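Priority: medium. Attachment 1 of 2:
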């Protein structure tokens, strides 16, 4: 269903302060974190909703304003679970992109209404990886906003995430093999809607976003409003401040962990890292965890799917006797050999969750 932001009583020729704030916040984030490629193509993931339409329009306008060298392409993934509405979303995004002179790429998924949120998310990112390759794009822009960030932090907090999880989404990184950037992490949803209204831009409404069935929707429509009404009206800002603090601590610990990984390193070979157990024992538990994270990331390219249980199993090897081994996600195996901890990549598994298995 197509929607427009609420109309103002009178159109002003002066820039709206909140509109300028959206532009200023996004431009500042882009510059501070070097989010855009230096030339080449930036792919923009566009669902047709308010956030992604605002992002595509902003990036097109910003490129023209400052003369950026990169080209911009739009990508839409049709999940195939909403029938004619989903097809209408795709047609809407195609029309918007064409009207703005942006190359358009589309993928359709053979999903079903019973597919889980995680399965749909993985399929969407796999499709975006393919579309990025087709477009020749080195990075893909995702329209996550400050509101999404606050909801993510609260969701992870409720699930017992560690320091890295509580740091929230990063301005740039890799998600399921896709290099992503998030220019709108400092922009609120209200500012997005105001931006669309001021530029008279329509967007699509996904009726499923109003459902309280998915956990994230319950946080957005029920839990956060209750916290704002009953605890603090500034709970979203508080969550963002906490996420920034957690992110600063996480980044510091990662730098320290890489330094201590080198100090504990016995051997580094193709698909294999060997660490000195006695050296690891000298490190505080939190630092040991980060050293293991760095080692896993070096071997696997990512840390996703490694749960607290997996990391606790790795930590136990520091004090265990020889002969114990642990099977980890993505074909990784860790074992204790005398005074050493050996991590080996046997093979690469399809993405999926796996519990640690002790043998």
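Attachment 2 of 2:
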């Amino acid at each position: 269903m197509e929607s427009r932001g609420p109309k103002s009583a009178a159109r002003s020729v002066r820039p709206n302060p909140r509109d300028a704030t959206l532009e200023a916040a996004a431009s500042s984030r882009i510059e501070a974190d070097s989010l855009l490629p230096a030339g080449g193509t930036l792919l923009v993931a566009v669902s047709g909703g308010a956030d992604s339409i605002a992002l595509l329009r902003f990036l097109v306008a910003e490129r023209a304003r400052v003369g950026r060298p990169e080209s911009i392409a739009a990508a839409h993934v049709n999940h195939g679970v909403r029938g004619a509405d989903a097809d209408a979303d795709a047609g809407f995004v195609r029309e918007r992109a064409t009207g703005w002179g942006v190359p358009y790429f589309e993928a359709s998924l053979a999903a079903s209404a019973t597919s889980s949120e995680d399965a749909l998310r993985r399929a969407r990112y796999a499709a975006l990886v393919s579309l990025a390759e087709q477009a020749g794009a080195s990075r893909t822009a995702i329209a996550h906003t400050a509101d999404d960030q606050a909801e993510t932090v609260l969701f992870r907090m409720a699930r017992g995430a560690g320091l890295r999880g509580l740091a929230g989404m990063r301005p740039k990184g890799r998600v399921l093999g896709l290099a992503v950037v998030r220019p709108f992490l400092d922009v609120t949803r209200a500012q997005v809607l105001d931006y669309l209204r001021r530029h008279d831009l329509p967007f699509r409404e996904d009726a499923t976003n109003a459902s309280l069935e998915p956990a994230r929707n319950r946080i957005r429509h029920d839990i956060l409003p209750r916290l704002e009404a009953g605890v603090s009206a500034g709970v979203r800002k508080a969550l963002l401040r906490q996420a920034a603090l957690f992110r600063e601590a996480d980044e510091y610990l990662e730098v320290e962990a890489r330094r201590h990984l080198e100090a504990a390193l016995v051997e580094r070979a193709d698909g294999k890292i060997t660490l000195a157990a006695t050296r690891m024992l000298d490190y505080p538990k939190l630092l040991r965890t980060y050293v293991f994270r760095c080692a896993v990331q070096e071997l696997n390219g990512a840390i996703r799917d490694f749960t607290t249980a997996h990391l606790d199993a790795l930590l136990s090897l520091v004090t265990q006797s020889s002969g114990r081994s642990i099977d980890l996600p993505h074909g990784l195996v860790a074992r204790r050999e005398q005074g050493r901890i050996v991590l080996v990549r046997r093979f690469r598994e399809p993405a999926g969750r796996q519990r640690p298995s002790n043998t």
